[in-house]
Amino acid sequence: MGYELNFGALLEYQDVLLSGLWMTVKLTVVSTLLGIMLGILGAAARRHRNPFLRHGSKAYVELIRNTPFIVQLFFIFFGLPAIGIKMTEVEAGILALVINLGAYLTEIIRAGIDNTPKGQIEAARTLGLSSRQIFIRIILPPAFQRVYSSVVSQCIIVMLGSAVVSQISVQELTFAANFIQSRNFLSFESYLVAALLYLLLAFLMRLIFNLIGSRAFSREEKQS
């Protein structure tokens, strides 16, 4: 018995689908920006002389990298209210995505920092730059450039992983696909469209990141 595709039936729910797509975009933009900032701070803490910061950052990375994302999400949304910390499902989803992305980017950026030639650091100290100035001006820019492709890939992975936040009723793309197929029972069409939209988002993210990277890094090379 053949199966007849019926994508036309999805048009009735196009507003739901577009709303879910827009929520996924918002989750991705916010979590990416905050996650990159957290990753930079975490990488700086991994190299800090203060043992509390250094070991605390390492513990954070190991905890997040060795536990399932869905458990982290449930802990934030269902667990934290038990100690009086309450937030909306969107806030919980963003926090979980930022914490998860930050942990992975901490290690990625740290790897780039570790490859910084010691001669550059010594030269900067000779010029009288402070440790903060050395990190921001001398260490971070080339380190970030070295690992930029890995940073981009990890951000895309987190965008795709944002589908998990539908489990706490965040009305993003996967939530929308679940809602649509529960109404018209067109599971094949609903999830295929959702998958294609995720593919489109991943392609656009990589394109945007590549444009940003090419402009930013070419400008740094000209300045140097």
UniProtKB/TrEMBL annotation:
<feature type="transmembrane region" description="Helical">
    <location>
        <begin position="20"/>
        <end position="45"/>
    </location>
</feature>
<dbReference type="InterPro" id="IPR043429">
    <property type="entry name" value="ArtM/GltK/GlnP/TcyL/YhdX-like"/>
</dbReference>
<dbReference type="GO" id="GO:0043190">
    <property type="term" value="C:ATP-binding cassette (ABC) transporter complex"/>
</dbReference>
<dbReference type="InterPro" id="IPR035906">
    <property type="entry name" value="MetI-like_sf"/>
</dbReference>
<keyword id="KW-0029">Amino-acid transport</keyword>
<feature type="transmembrane region" description="Helical">
    <location>
        <begin position="90"/>
        <end position="109"/>
    </location>
</feature>
<protein>
    <submittedName>
        <fullName>Amino acid ABC transporter membrane protein 1, PAAT family</fullName>
    </submittedName>
</protein>
<feature type="domain" description="ABC transmembrane type-1">
    <location>
        <begin position="21"/>
        <end position="209"/>
    </location>
</feature>
<keyword id="KW-0812">Transmembrane</keyword>
<dbReference type="InterPro" id="IPR000515">
    <property type="entry name" value="MetI-like"/>
</dbReference>
<keyword id="KW-1133">Transmembrane helix</keyword>
<dbReference type="GO" id="GO:0006865">
    <property type="term" value="P:amino acid transport"/>
</dbReference>
<feature type="transmembrane region" description="Helical">
    <location>
        <begin position="66"/>
        <end position="84"/>
    </location>
</feature>
<feature type="transmembrane region" description="Helical">
    <location>
        <begin position="190"/>
        <end position="209"/>
    </location>
</feature>
<comment type="similarity">
    <text>Belongs to the binding-protein-dependent transport system permease family. HisMQ subfamily.</text>
</comment>
<keyword id="KW-0813">Transport</keyword>
<dbReference type="GO" id="GO:0022857">
    <property type="term" value="F:transmembrane transporter activity"/>
</dbReference>
<dbReference type="InterPro" id="IPR010065">
    <property type="entry name" value="AA_ABC_transptr_permease_3TM"/>
</dbReference>
<keyword id="KW-0472">Membrane</keyword>
<dbReference type="Pfam" id="PF00528">
    <property type="entry name" value="BPD_transp_1"/>
</dbReference>
<keyword id="KW-1003">Cell membrane</keyword>
<feature type="transmembrane region" description="Helical">
    <location>
        <begin position="147"/>
        <end position="170"/>
    </location>
</feature>
